[in-house]
Amino acid sequence: MNILTRLLAVPLAALAVAAALPEPAHAERLKDLVSFQGVRDNPLIGYGLIVGLDGTGDQTMQTPFTTQSLTNMLGNLGITLNSASTQNMQLKNVAAVMVTATLPPFARPGEAIDVTVSSLGNAKSLRGGTLLMAPLKGADGQVYAMAQGNLVVGGAGASANGSKVQVNQLAVGRISGGAIVERAVPNAITQAGGTMQMELREMDFDTTQKIVAAVNNQFGMGTALALDGRTIQLRAPADASEQVSFMAQLQNIDVKPSQAAAKVILNARTGSIVMNQMVTLQSCAVAHGNLSVVINTQTAVSQPGAFSNGQTVAAKQSQIQLKQDSGALKLLSAGANLADVVKALNALGATPADLISILQSMKAAGALRADLEII
Question: Where is the signal peptide (predicted)?
Fold first, then answer.
């Protein structure tokens, strides 16, 4: 072996070892891993009326609450309607809707937030409508915002002579900045004793310890203390402005989270399957056969003889075929990484719906090293 061969041998060996090692975990900012207790969104909900529709509103005979809501609104504006007028209303340009919004943390009175408007009755379309003033309430029943404005619908549709075409959803729209905040929600970040708490979005004891070590390394020992696998207690500054600076520095700390647990997500409705890189597969044999039923129905017509005064009789004849494909045993080799697991499952040639049953059976047999979660 000459000198050149010896020099090349060492790098090639190092590359082979590096390829066999797992990829290192990338560091993530603390703001992507945790949230501060007390800093949260608050859902809001309200009821209102959409007006100005082009004949696509609610059918008042089937949605009496639309008529009642309009009567109450006109009464508040000084217009009184008798019972006969109320019963004869045909409001094709009005629709009852539910209005929802999310109040962000630290929102102050006067700020504008987006709202989503959804049809409550049988309106065909909310396109081109205007939402009248609708109060938005929180879980405590208090009004926190007032919504009003022109609705933007992302869909389109047309119908004529029984034919109909529609793109996207016409019964839901959005008003950008359509609600004005009227009441602020107090956000208590610090607790008694001048402490605050961080909560991990995903419970993990190892990641919690890494975060505590990183915070104490930057701010000093005793700044962070792990209460459990999700909650971390922080010793916060007493001054409010210093607390904001403290939280900003916390969010920019880089932490390498621990590897997630092996998990396979199965969507039983759509048949989709998602698995992370920690999933491994042990050697196993799988046999899976498909059962199909084919029903063929034909109509047989029996004509009466000439001058027999008989009637033509139509009878339906059905033929049923039952077919079961052979399910030969297939050996799946052990997979050490996600690519090997996918390659082994693809060797079965099964549909996603069949793979759901196969994965459940493999988990029961101990061949699939992952947690199954069905959504």
Answer: 1-27
* Residue ranges of E strands in 56-194: 95-103, 112-119, 130-137, 143-150, 156-160, 163-167, 172-181
Classify residue 336 by its DSSP letter: S
pTM for the whole structure: 0.69
pLDDT of residue 256 exceeding 80, the answer is: yes
Pairing, β 263-266 against β 371-374: parallel
* Residue 308 DSSP label: S
Q: Which two tokens stand for residue 3?
A: 């000198």
32-42: burial string, b at 16+ Cβ within 10 Å, e else: ebbebbeeeeb
How far apart, in whole angstroms, are the C-alpha atoms of residue 199 and residue 188?
15
Reading the block at residue 13, the tokens are 């060996």
φ and ψ at residue 181, rounded to 5 degrees: -70, 130
